[in-house]
Every structure is written in structure tokens, then in C-alpha cells.
């Protein structure tokens, strides 16, 4: 049983099947009024109907999942089934917005409420340096250094977009709201929870991180667990 909160952020390593099993179990226990997916745009989320939720292949086709680049839909379908009455929201941005953010910053692409979600202020120098280093590591050191600040802005855009979608879901359905997202967006110090705390500090948030090895130090999550790692090819091979 999860501690009570209005917004529950369930992190994942995207291609780890056990993480999605855990998310589905948490969603079933939570019985949320709304599900927010990092993987869906608002336009995709609007295609989800009660009739489709029970038919995995049809739902995947309606969402154009195969072309999305996310892991196989069979990993995610049980999450939908765990709360079939929940309203589904999407927080993803289209490619044009991502490219524009990498070039011109998150605040400009996010829209008029950028300041509300903490995007109007530049990051402190030390914070930016930490995030640039994380982006370099995440991309196997293969990206030109000049691209990395833009990647940080894209991450900020997605954090704020998830926070905005979660708040909209809470306001429209009353909550609780479950958010399905990667661990990076679930962390309390700089992810969705940080953006939501700026925009709506009265909203209660609970975050869960899922790891494939014991983390070092104090992980920035309210709760966290460790599972066996997924079997996968070398993620850096593509960059070579």
C-alpha cells in the first residue's frame, strides 16, 4: 500500500519489464482517477476509449505506438488495464517542439505559463553543469558538447510538461493521479515533482524510483526499489 498523495509519480527504466509489472500493481492499488503518460501526446491520449483499453493490439494501433520508439506496448498495456476507468492524459511534446526547445530554450516553447512551472529562470551554474554531465553520460559521451545544454532544456520542458499534465488531471478528475514516466522525470530535486511544487505547492506528491542496482548516496525519491536488470544490448553501441 502506497502512502496517500494527490499525485503519485511512478518511475521506471523504460525497457525493464519488471518495472512495468510494479507500476501496474501500484496503479491497481491506488485506483487513480487519472493516468498521465510521458509516452503519449495529449492528442494520442484523447484517442483512448473504454472500449479500446481491453484490446491491446487495437489500442496500440490507435496510439501509433509502433512508430513511437518506446518499448513494446505489451509492457505498458497492463498499466491501462489496472485502472480501466481512469481518464488518460498525455504529456509528450511533438518533434517540432523538442527541436525548438533544444535551439531556443524550454520557456519559449512551453508557452505563457512557463514562469508558473519554473522555466523562466535560468539554471544556476552548478546545477546546469551537473545536468550537462548527466546528459553526456546518458548519451555515452557521443554528443558534441555544444548540444548538451539544449538537451538539458529539453529535459526541463518534459519535466514541466508532465507537471502541467498532472495538475490538469488533478483539477479535472479530483485525483489521485498516477504518472508513468522515467526515473529522471520522477526525481524530487529536479523532475516533475520540483516543477509541480513550484506551480502548485499545496498539492501532495509521492515519488517512486526503480533501479537495476543499489543506488549510491541518498536517491532523490520518496520511495525506491531495486529489481534485476533487464536483458539488453549495449546501449552505447548505436553511438559508435
What does this structure look like?
A six-stranded parallel beta sheet has the order 3-2-4-1-5-6, with helices on both faces. It has helices spanning 17-30, 42-45, 50-53, 56-62, 73-82, 95-104, 106-110, 125-138, 148-173, 183-186, 192-199, and strands at 7-10, 34-37, 87-90, 177-180, 205-211, 223-226. α1 runs parallel beside α5 and α9 (148-173) packs across α11. It is α/β, with parallel strands linked by helices and 240 residues long. The chain has eleven helices and six strands.
What is this structure's SSE topology?
Layout lengths: L6 E4 L6 H14 L3 E4 L4 H4 L4 H4 L2 H7 L10 H10 L4 E4 L4 H10 L1 H5 L14 H14 L9 H26 L3 E4 L2 H4 L5 H8 L5 E7 L11 E4 L14
Parallel strand pairs: 1-4, 1-5, 2-3, 2-4, 5-6
Helix pairs in contact: 1-5, 6-9, 8-9, 9-11
Concise overview:
By secondary structure, this protein is an alpha/beta fold.
Low-pLDDT runs of 5+ residues are none
Taking all residues together, what is the mean pLDDT? 96
Provide the β-strand percentage band: 5-15%
The helix content is 40-55%
State the strand order across the main sheet: 3-2-4-1-5-6
- Look at the helices and sheets and give the structural class: alpha/beta
**Could you tell me the number of beta strands?**
6
- How widely separated are the two ends? 44 Å
- Main beta sheet strand tally, sense and closure: 6 strands, parallel
Instruction: Give the overall form.
Output: globular
**Number of H- or I-type helical stretches:** 11
Spell the H/E element sequence: EHEHHHHEHHHHEHHEE
What is the rounded Rg?
17 Å
Amino acid at each position: 500500500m502506497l502512502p496517500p498523495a494527490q499525485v503519485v509519480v511512478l518511475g521506471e527504466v523504460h525497457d525493464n519489464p519488471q518495472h512495468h509489472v510494479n507500476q501496474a500493481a501500484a496503479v491497481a492499488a491506488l485506483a487513480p482517477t487519472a493516468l498521465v503518460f510521458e509516452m503519449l501526446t495529449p492528442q494520442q491520449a484523447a484517442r483512448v476509449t473504454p472500449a479500446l483499453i481491453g484490446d491491446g493490439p487495437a489500442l496500440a494501433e490507435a496510439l501509433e505506438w509502433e512508430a513511437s520508439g518506446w518499448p513494446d506496448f505489451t509492457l505498458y498495456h497492463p498499466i491501462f488495464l489496472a485502472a480501466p476507468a481512469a481518464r488518460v492524459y498525455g504529456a509528450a511534446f511533438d518533434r517540432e517542439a523538442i527541436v525548438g526547445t533544444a535551439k531556443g530554450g524550454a520557456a519559449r516553447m512551453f508557452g505563457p505559463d512557463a514562469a508558473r512551472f519554473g522555466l523562466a529562470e535560468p539554471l544556476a551554474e552548478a546545477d546546469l553543469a551537473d545536468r550537462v554531465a548527466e546528459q553526456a553520460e546518458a548519451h555515452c559521451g557521443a554528443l558534441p558538447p555544444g548540444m548538451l545544454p539544449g538537451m538539458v532544456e529539453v529535459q526541463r520542458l518534459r519535466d514541466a510538461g508532465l507537471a502541467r499534465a498532472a495538475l490538469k488531471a488533478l483539477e479535472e478528475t479530483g485525483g489521485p493521479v498516477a504518472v508513468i514516466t522515467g526515473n529522471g522525470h520522477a526525481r524530487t530535486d529536479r523532475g516533475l515533482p520540483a516543477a509541480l511544487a513550484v506551480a502548485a505547492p499545496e498539492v501532495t506528491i509521492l515519488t517512486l524510483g526503480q533501479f537495476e542496482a543499489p543506488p549510491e548516496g541518498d536517491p532523490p525519491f520518496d520511495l525506491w526499489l531495486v529489481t534485476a536488470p533487464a536483458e539488453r544490448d549495449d546501449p552505447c553501441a548505436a553511438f559508435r
